[in-house]
Write a structure and sequence with these properties.
mainly alpha; about 0% strand
């Protein structure tokens, strides 16, 4: 079911172009987090797309199986998240199919955030690196209250 459903890649030059005017404002830390999340999501989706495409080539007899593709094949057959995907993504105990549906929802929410760089609510769902978001909250609060970041 995953084949042919890989979420779209973010056009990073377009994302950065839209973000440029906002990097001087109060929301700059959140805009930076959104840019970083788009970059991370591109790594995740390209890893999935490449591995699924290679696996399909193997199944069609156009490419030889290797250990990595064999592990990928077994993981997907058992509805487990392949190790190659979890290395670049977030930890999860979900089945591969449910994890993939989660990925699609995360991309959808991140797309909404990236379109206007306004924080969608709830945001927790889309974050690959929630620590970066929490640091953006600290920086924004510290600036608002004129407090040194280390003291925030």
């Amino acid at each position: 079911e995953i084949e042919g459903k890989s979420p779209r890649q973010f056009n990073m030059s377009s994302v950065r172009e839209k973000a440029t005017r906002l990097l001087e404002g109060v929301s700059a830390p959140f805009v930076l987090v959104a840019i970083q999340e788009c970059e991370r999501m591109n790594i995740i989706t390209s890893t999935i797309t490449n591995s699924v495409n290679q696996l399909q080539l193997c199944l069609n007899g156009q490419l030889r199986f290797n250990d990595v593709l064999e592990r990928l094949s077994f993981a997907l057959a058992e509805n487990r998240i392949p190790d190659a995907w979890t290395k670049v993504a977030w930890p999860s105990n979900k089945t591969a199919l449910n994890w993939f549906f989660d990925l699609e929802a995360r991309v959808e929410q991140l797309t909404l955030w990236e379109e206007r760089f306004e924080l969608p609510l709830p945001l927790w769902f889309a974050l690959c690196a929630p620590i970066a978001f929490l640091n953006a909250v600290k920086v924004t609060s510290a600036r608002k209250d004129c407090i040194m970041f280390d003291d925030a």
